[in-house]
Specification:
Mean pLDDT: 92
Strand content: 15-25%
Distance between the termini: 21 Å
Largest sheet: 9 strands, mixed
Helix content: 25-40%
CATH architecture of the largest domain: Alpha-Beta Barrel
Shape: globular
CATH class of the largest domain: Alpha Beta
Radius of gyration: 24 Å
Strand order of the largest sheet: 1-2-13-10-9-8-7-6-3
């Protein structure tokens, strides 16, 4: 189960599989393209280095300030409610059809009543929520009650924002959302030929007004001219997305001559460069507008990690840990009487160290904290990882836990095996112990790992073991390489 990118060829094959029906119709990046794009991106990032902030493992650069909602997203405290699946705009870059009204939902779950959704937010400890569509104003009779109930229940404990193209955002409806407690509204002005008319209507009504659009390369000059006007009209934030290619929009994107990049998501290289150019312009001109680039690799690494982490907290056993990618890590070692007694003494003393002895196998399962407190623990080390997910009902494919929300709705959390059990020799166990320590970061790739621990011995089998470990343990830094 691939969680994070690790090698070029693996991502190319993954992209080929996911885009199989249209892969050959796209203009894929060549090595010469990659060198050219990489050089241009490095120049832009160097120019931004003293004027921008680089957050979330340097995958989300921004200037001036970041919306509270964007910060909550990166921190893993955000839930997005898709209120419907219908839209009254036809943006060429839209990744999905948006033609059928569905029940409000998120993460495979649906919520017929606002009370069900706020119970879900409360159960899993979200402090940020957004309402998206399609277009939320097309089903305003649903949108307003959900927004009002979220703020009624949580007030300032949950930051609430809404996405819209603005076409149906009348002054009366904006006032109703303000009275319901909406904290921020985000406009896709690409849906209205980059007009700021609807945006202006919200300024002074909703506390924070944001423009959130894909960075369309052909519109770079227009957006450059618009940025000063955005600030003059009272816009607080400009969020720029990288265009994503899907089965729904690929033909429209291909007709524009874009260069497509392999990755966990299929992205447009020119879109990323356009976003960075707009950030550079805003910074150099000293325009007091918070601009951030929301890259596809940021979304893959951090949004997905956030959900896994939230489910994992409810699924892991006391002696298990949650990794940097939101996976559940389980460790065990062979245990004689003396080692078992020492482990029990340390666990009894508290300090977060937990363990469980499985008598029929003679193995002790233990948390990472116990490893530091019991000498000799982990020399015969086995590690496995589990992938947490949420479902509306039991699938009976994996171990699960049912959680009943206050409204009576039941959701199901599952933990699926993500790797076979990995056996580590003495040298590997020592390396694993070092890398999972509090002050040590996992290397980004296998080359760096084997340079750091040459005693492991770089064999094909060792590469497979450590590839699985790296994918489950760490989130890589920097924007995705072009390939």
């Amino acid at each position: 189960m691939q969680l994070t990118e690790l090698d070029h060829q693996g991502l190319v094959e993954k992209t080929r599989q996911e885009c199989a029906s249209f892969y050959d119709r796209l203009r894929w990046i060549t090595p010469a393209d990659a060198r050219r794009f990489d050089r241009e991106r490095r120049e832009l990032l160097d120019a931004l280095s003293l004027q921008a902030f680089f957050t979330f493992n340097r995958t989300k650069p921004y200037t001036r300030r970041l919306s509270p909602g964007c910060r909550l997203c990166g921190e893993g405290s955000w839930s997005c409610l898709f209120i419907n699946n219908i839209c009254n705009a036809r943006c060429f870059y839209c990744p999905s059809e948006q033609q059928t009204v569905d029940e409000p939902g998120t993460n495979t779950l649906t919520f017929r009543r606002p009370e069900e959704y706020v119970d879900y937010l409360e159960c899993f400890g979200f402090t940020g929520a957004s309402i998206s569509g399609g277009e939320p104003f097309m089903t305003f009779d649903k949108t307003l009650p959900f927004a009002a109930e979220i703020k009624r229940r949580f007030q300032d404990r949950v930051y609430l924002w809404l996405y819209t193209n603005g076409i149906l955002a009348s002054s009366d409806r904006l006032a109703q959302l303000r009275d319901a407690g909406l904290d921020e509204i985000r406009f896709n002005i690409g849906a209205v030929d980059y007009s700021l008319e609807h945006v202006q209507r919200a300024v002074g009504v909703i506390p924070h007004v944001t423009i959130e659009i894909p960075a369309v390369p052909e519109r770079l000059d227009l957006l450059t001219r618009l940025i000063p006007e955005m600030r003059e009209r009272g816009v607080d934030f400009l969020n720029l997305h990288q265009i994503r290619c899907t089965a729904f929009n690929h033909s429209r994107l291909a007709s524009r001559g874009y260069t497509f990049v392999h990755g966990p998501f299929c992205g447009v290289a020119e879109s990323e460069l356009a976003a960075l150019k707009l950030m550079k312009y805003t910074a150099e001109e000293g325009i007091d507008l918070g601009v951030n680039y929301c890259s596809l690799i940021y979304r893959h690494r951090f949004q997905a990690r956030a959900f896994r982490y939230r489910w994992a907290r409810h699924l892991k056993k006391d002696y298990e840990d949650i990794t940097g990618t939101g996976m559940i890590r389980s460790m065990s070692a062979a245990s004689g009487p003396a080692l078992l007694q020492r482990a029990r003494e340390v666990c009894a003393a508290g300090q977060g160290a937990e363990a469980s002895f499985l008598e029929r196998t003679g193995r002790l399962f233990f948390s990472r904290a116990l490893m530091d407190r019991v000498e000799g623990l982990g020399r015969d080390l086995r590690v496995s990882y589990h992938f947490p997910s949420i479902h509306p009902g039991v699938t009976y494919r994996n171990a699960f836990r049912e959680i009943r929300l206050g409204s009576g709705k039941t959701v199901v959390l599952e933990r699926a095996p993500a790797t076979p059990e990995i056996e580590l020799g003495a040298e590997e166990a020592a390396a694993f112990r070092t890398l999972t320590g509090a002050d040590t970061a996992f290397p980004d790739d296998l080359d760096a790992l084997f340079r750091l621990f040459p005693g492991i011995g770089r064999t094909p089998a060792a590469e497979e073991r450590w590839k699985a470990i790296l994918q489950a343990e760490r989130i890589r830094s920097e924007l995705l390489e072009y390939y």
